[in-house]
């Protein structure tokens, strides 16, 4: 049906579905909530409005937009004041006590939250569900005539709005507005309007409002929250911007009775503004034209209006219709006697099918005006706004016909429209029941539409759409299969093994599907064994382990972590096990997992030394226990007695481990510590914690040669090592006289070349030459070179007839100074070669 009136061009109303739902109650006796974008309809019989509550409990029923039942449940909670759908198609049920119950599309309970203690104490008089860019919100009017709201039920933050001065009764009407990304409340008290924000209550005046208004009876905010309409007791409808700063128009409908419903009906980016007003037996469409569109409405008494992005859905017990402004392209093509390019092209195509020559005449007319491209575009655009497939096909055939006469018309828009219409026709089907328009579909996006099909458990259709549109697997088929699997695990009448096998057969190694997410859903449904079976298909250990820990299957989690080879993952499980098990069970678990035990020991070495000791004791690992006590003697003990005691414990452990060398070495260290303490007491200075060699060296440096020799005898230091220590210490003291005496005390077990080297290191060539003469023949050349006597070194090398020694001397010959020596060596070499 097409409706037009002067400048007001609201358009047409067509039937979406013939409703076959079997309603037990009249719509007027129910709380009704219908979701936008062709969403579901919720009905709850409202016995609480009657003077005496009904003895039977009401039933909450959820239907698709075509009237197909989705859920039905007996209401067992408290009295409900209002119903509404969130943007995610969750049903919000606002109870009288301020508790909001949230249900899924199929009547499954999701969660609940409270609107605060003040709402609980004063009860709820009225409530509104509204939508902002942040999410879906709830606004509450309490019995104390105060407002409380939350702009996002997903992230609940309650705001108590300021009090309206002098408000003694409920406002005649109120609504929520969204300005500057903040939710406000607009309410009417008699002839006055008040705007509540988070800080203040402000009185507002509507610009251009007709005089004589004593009360506002109804308010309506547009779908986009940009425009506002108010119905007054004088029968006037004021329309303006939601900011209340600009008036768009005002209309006198000459009806003073308050309307049952009032909603906006406008198309995005359209300059037309219209409001649909419904009374008991009349529907009126008003706008900025002097006349309205009125017609008797037999079903008005039991009908409901649902505002949409580009129109209004109207459903009753028998029908579901859509009223909207005719899009420009459709109006241009279908208006009477239209000469628009699209209209001519449509006629040309029809005549072509009849094999009439008029097709050529229409086509030539379009081409002469140079409007063939525009005509094709008009037909494509108009096809998108048609609801019936036959009309869509007719317009698309006309567009395809026109394209044949264009050289460079890009096919993308035509192909895309064909795809979009095929998707829209599929979801508009009666059994699916999502009557989206083209504008709504584009605003909603294909991803959200797929989500809504998944919510309705229409997995095959969603997958077909993904495959048809060739969406990437991660965004399309994989995501839908994952949702299907999450639904599958909730079917408790099927065995765990069958469910796991079915899911694996269907999903396989599909990219983008996480078996751990599906297993988490199974665990959330109380099916732990199914979750474990599903985790077997998860290739990523990092995803398996956290869920196994959450399920308290820590030992299995440890095995999986070890299999992964990820040490960080193993440490995570170990720390969890440590907190979960008692000490004995924890250690026994570690004994069965050598890799985990080794890693835990490494952790304990740095963090928990006492635990490390307990581990060694439990395993009777005396070797490591001895090493632990040795480290502990230095790290933890400062007193010499405590250190010696710890070393004694270490020695005992080494004996038990049959490591006599380590035990003897530990006992020697104990003797050294006692001796160092005695030396500190008798001589002063710092001896503790020095090594044996450093202790001997310190004694020599302090002039305690006899004590040093006694210490060497006590600890069986070899003569060679003692001579090296004494040589180094005396040279460091530059006590050359004592060093000479020491060299002559007996034959040096290390030879005399070290004496030469030490003296030259201290830059004392004089002393070095004393010992060079005493160096044995095999090291004589090296000693002479060290003291710089190249000539004598050459003589010795020639005498020894040693090629290596002669080469060494030659390498030390420099410049003219040693030229004669070098010649001498060369001659000796030549003679040796002749022989």
TrEMBL record:
<dbReference type="GO" id="GO:0003779">
    <property type="term" value="F:actin binding"/>
</dbReference>
<dbReference type="Pfam" id="PF04841">
    <property type="entry name" value="Vps16_N"/>
</dbReference>
<dbReference type="GO" id="GO:0005765">
    <property type="term" value="C:lysosomal membrane"/>
</dbReference>
<keyword id="KW-0967">Endosome</keyword>
<dbReference type="InterPro" id="IPR038132">
    <property type="entry name" value="Vps16_C_sf"/>
</dbReference>
<keyword id="KW-0472">Membrane</keyword>
<dbReference type="GO" id="GO:0016197">
    <property type="term" value="P:endosomal transport"/>
</dbReference>
<keyword id="KW-0813">Transport</keyword>
<dbReference type="GO" id="GO:0030897">
    <property type="term" value="C:HOPS complex"/>
</dbReference>
<comment type="subunit">
    <text>Core component of at least two putative endosomal tethering complexes, the homotypic fusion and vacuole protein sorting (HOPS) complex and the class C core vacuole/endosome tethering (CORVET) complex. Their common core is composed of the class C Vps proteins VPS11, VPS16, VPS18 and VPS33A, which in HOPS further associates with VPS39 and VPS41 and in CORVET with VPS8 and TGFBRAP1. Interacts with RAB5C. Interacts with STX17, MON1B. Associates with adapter protein complex 3 (AP-3) and clathrin:AP-3 complexes.</text>
</comment>
<keyword id="KW-0175">Coiled coil</keyword>
<comment type="function">
    <text>Plays a role in vesicle-mediated protein trafficking to lysosomal compartments including the endocytic membrane transport and autophagic pathways. Believed to act as a core component of the putative HOPS and CORVET endosomal tethering complexes.</text>
</comment>
<keyword id="KW-0653">Protein transport</keyword>
<dbReference type="InterPro" id="IPR006925">
    <property type="entry name" value="Vps16_C"/>
</dbReference>
<dbReference type="GO" id="GO:0033263">
    <property type="term" value="C:CORVET complex"/>
</dbReference>
<comment type="similarity">
    <text>Belongs to the VPS16 family.</text>
</comment>
<dbReference type="GO" id="GO:0006886">
    <property type="term" value="P:intracellular protein transport"/>
</dbReference>
<dbReference type="InterPro" id="IPR006926">
    <property type="entry name" value="Vps16_N"/>
</dbReference>
<dbReference type="GO" id="GO:0042144">
    <property type="term" value="P:vacuole fusion, non-autophagic"/>
</dbReference>
<feature type="domain" description="Vps16 C-terminal">
    <location>
        <begin position="513"/>
        <end position="831"/>
    </location>
</feature>
<dbReference type="InterPro" id="IPR016534">
    <property type="entry name" value="VPS16"/>
</dbReference>
<protein>
    <recommendedName>
        <fullName>Vacuolar protein sorting-associated protein 16 homolog</fullName>
    </recommendedName>
</protein>
<dbReference type="Pfam" id="PF04840">
    <property type="entry name" value="Vps16_C"/>
</dbReference>
<dbReference type="GO" id="GO:0005769">
    <property type="term" value="C:early endosome"/>
</dbReference>
<feature type="domain" description="Vps16 N-terminal">
    <location>
        <begin position="12"/>
        <end position="416"/>
    </location>
</feature>
<keyword id="KW-0458">Lysosome</keyword>
<dbReference type="GO" id="GO:0031902">
    <property type="term" value="C:late endosome membrane"/>
</dbReference>
<feature type="coiled-coil region">
    <location>
        <begin position="345"/>
        <end position="372"/>
    </location>
</feature>
């Amino acid at each position: 049906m097409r409706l037009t009136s002067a400048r007001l061009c609201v358009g047409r109303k067509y039937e979406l579905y013939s409703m076959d739902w079997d309603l037990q109650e009249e719509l007027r006796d129910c709380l009704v909530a219908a979701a936008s974008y062709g969403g579901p309809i919720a009905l709850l019989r409202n016995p609480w409005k009657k003077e005496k509550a009904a003895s039977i409990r009401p039933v909450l029923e959820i239907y698709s937009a075509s009237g197909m039942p989705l859920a039905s449940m007996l209401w067992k909670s408290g009295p409900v004041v209002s119903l509404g759908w969130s943007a995610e198609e969750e049903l919000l049920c606002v109870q009288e006590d301020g508790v909001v119950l949230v249900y899924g599309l199929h009547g499954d309970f999701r969660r609940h939250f409270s609107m605060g203690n003040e709402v609980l104490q004063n009860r709820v008089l009225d409530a509104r569900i509204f939508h902002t860019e942040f999410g879906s919100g709830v606004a509450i009017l309490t019995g104390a005539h105060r407002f409380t709201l939350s702009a996002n039920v997903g992230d609940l933050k309650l705001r108590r709005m300021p009090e309206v001065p002098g408000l003694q009764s409920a406002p005649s009407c109120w609504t929520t507005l969204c300005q500057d990304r903040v939710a406000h409340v607009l309410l009417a008290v008699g002839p006055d309007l008040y705007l509540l924000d988070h800080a203040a209550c402000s009185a507002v005046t509507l610009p251009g409002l007709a005089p004589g208004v004593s009360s506002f009876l109804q308010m309506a905010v547009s779908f986009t929250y940009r425009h506002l309409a108010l119905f007054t007791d004088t029968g006037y409808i004021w329309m303006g911007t939601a900011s209340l700063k600009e008036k768009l128009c005002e209309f006198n409908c000459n009806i003073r009775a308050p309307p049952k419903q009032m909603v906006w009906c406008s198309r995005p980016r359209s300059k037309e503004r219209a409001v649909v007003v419904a009374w008991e037996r009349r529907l009126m469409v008003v706008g900025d034209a002097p006349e309205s569109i009125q017609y008797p409405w037999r079903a008005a008494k039991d009908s409901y209006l649902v505002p949409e992005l580009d129109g209004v859905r109207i459903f009753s017990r028998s029908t579901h219709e859509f009223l909207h402004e005719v899009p420009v392209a459709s109006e241009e093509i279908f208006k009477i006697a239209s000469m628009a390019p699209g209209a001519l092209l449509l006629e040309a195509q029809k005549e072509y099918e009849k094999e009439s020559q008029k097709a050529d005449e229409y086509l030539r007319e379009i081409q002469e005006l140079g409007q063939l491209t525009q005509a094709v575009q008009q037909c494509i655009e108009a096809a998108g706004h048609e609801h019936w497939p036959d009309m869509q096909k007719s317009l698309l055939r006309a567009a395809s016909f026109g394209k044949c006469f264009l050289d460079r018309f890009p096919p993308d828009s035509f192909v895309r429209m064909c795809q979009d219409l095929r998707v829209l026709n599929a979801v508009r089907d009666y059994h699916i029941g999502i009557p989206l328009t083209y504008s709504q579909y584009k605003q909603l996006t294909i991803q959200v539409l797929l989500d809504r099909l998944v919510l309705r458990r229409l997995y095959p259709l969603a997958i077909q759409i993904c495959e048809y549109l060739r969406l990437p697997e991660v965004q399309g088929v994989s995501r839908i299969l994952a949702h299907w699997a999450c639904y599958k695990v909730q079917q408790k009448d099927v065995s765990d093994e069958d469910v796991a096998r079915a899911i694996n057969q269907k999903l396989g190694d599909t990219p983008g599907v996480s078996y751990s997410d599906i297993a988490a859903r199974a665990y959330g449904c109380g099916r732990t064994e199914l979750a474990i079976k599903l985790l077997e298909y998860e290739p990523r250990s990092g995803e398996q382990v956290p869920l196994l820990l959450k399920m308290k299957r820590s030992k299995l989690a440890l095995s999986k972590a070890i299999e992964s080879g990820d040490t960080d993952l193993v440490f995570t499980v170990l720390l969890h096990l440590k907190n979960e098990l008692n000490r004995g069970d924890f250690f026994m678990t570690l004994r069965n997992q050598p890799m985990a035990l080794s890693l835990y020991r490494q952790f304990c070495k740095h963090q928990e030394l006492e635990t490390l000791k307990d581990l060694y004791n439990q395993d009777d690992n005396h070797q490591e226990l001895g090493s632990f006590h040795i480290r502990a003697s230095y790290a933890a003990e400062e007193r010499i007695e405590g250190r010696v005691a710890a070393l004694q414990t270490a020695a005992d452990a080494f004996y038990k481990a049959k490591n006599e060398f380590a035990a003897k070495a530990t006992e020697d260290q104990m003797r050294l510590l006692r001796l160092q303490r005695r030396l500190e007491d008798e001589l002063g200075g710092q001896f503790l914690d020095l090594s044996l060699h450093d202790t001997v060296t310190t004694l020599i440096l302090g002039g305690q040669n006899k004590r040093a020799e006694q210490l060497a005898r006590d600890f069986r230091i070899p003569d060679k090592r003692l001579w090296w220590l004494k040589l180094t210490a005396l040279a460091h003291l530059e006590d050359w006289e004592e060093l000479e005496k020491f060299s002559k005390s007996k034959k040096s077990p290390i030879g005399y070349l070290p004496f030469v080297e030490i003296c030259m290191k201290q830059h004392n060539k004089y002393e070095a030459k004393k010992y060079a003469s005493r160096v044995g023949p095999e090291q004589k050349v090296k000693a002479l070179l060290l003291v710089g006597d190249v000539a004598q070194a050459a003589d010795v090398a020639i005498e020894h007839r040693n090629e290596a020694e002669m080469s060494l001397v030659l390498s030390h010959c420099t410049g003219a100074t040693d030229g004669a020596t070098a010649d001498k060596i060369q001659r000796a070499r030549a003679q040796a070669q002749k022989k």
